[in-house]
Amino acid sequence: MTSAKGSTWPTMANARGNLTEPRTESGPLDTVRRTITFAGRSGRSELISYLFATLLVSVPVSFISGLALEHDAHMLAGNGLTVLLALPVPTLLVRRFHDSGRSGAWVWLAVFGFSVWLLRTAISALWGLDARLTFDAWTWLIDWAVIIANLASVMLALLPGSFGTNRYGPDPRDGTAG
Questions:
Q1: Model's pTM, two decimal places?
Q2: H-helix or E-strand containing 92?
Q3: What is the chain's pLDDT, residue by residue, as a tens digit (178 residues)?
Q4: Domain range annotation of the chain
Q5: For 104, which DSSP code?
Q6: Which site in 80, 103, 159, 166 is 20 to 30 Å from 97, CA atoms measured?
C-alpha cells in the first residue's frame, strides 16, 4: 500500500482520521539528546521508556557498586548517578505538560521535590547523619508539600496528551513531531 506521501510504508490514521506515516517512538536516547530542549511535545511512551531505561541502568550499577565499594563511595556513586540520570527529566516533563496543553511552569512541582532531596543529600554528605536528622526534625512539614508536589507532577505527566496540534507543536503520536 502506498501512503499519502508516496512511500511504500503502510499508512495509519491519527485521532482526526488523517492518514499519516507510522509514528516513530521516542526512546531514552532521544530524551537524552533533547535534554536542553523545552520546546515541543513528548508522549507518555517517551517518559515511560526513559524511566524504564534509568531503572535498567541504576539497579545493576547500584548492586555492583554496593558489592565493590565501601559504604561512603557507594552512596556517592548512587547519588551521582541519580543526579546524572535526572538531568533530562525537567525538560521531558515540560514537553509532557505541553503535550496535554499545559504550561511548562508545572515542572516546578517536580523540581521542588528533587531540590529537597538534593539538599538533604548534601547535608548528609557535608555534615553527617546527625545534621541531616536535625534538619529533618525541623522541616518535616516540607515533606508533606514534597509528597503533594510529586503526586501532582506524576499525575500531570501521565495524563493523556491532547489530540492533534496544540499551541506547543504537533502531536507526537502523529509521527510529525520532532
A1: 0.76
A2: helix 89-99
A3: 444 444 343 444 444 554 444 444 566 777 778 878 889 999 999 899 999 999 999 999 999 999 999 988 998 899 999 999 999 999 999 999 999 999 999 999 999 999 999 999 999 989 988 999 999 999 989 999 999 999 999 999 999 999 999 999 999 887 655 5
A4: 27-162
A5: G
A6: 80
Cell numbers 506521501: residue:
5
Residue indicated by cell numbers 543529600? 121
Dist CA 39 CA 155 (whole Å) = 21
Contact between 53 and 28 under an 8 Å Cβ cutoff? The reply is: yes
Neighbours of 69 (CB within 10 A): 14
* Rounded CA separation 92/59 (Å): 22
| Angle value at C-alpha 28, between 12 and 26, nearest 5 degrees | 15
As a residue count, the chain comes to: 178
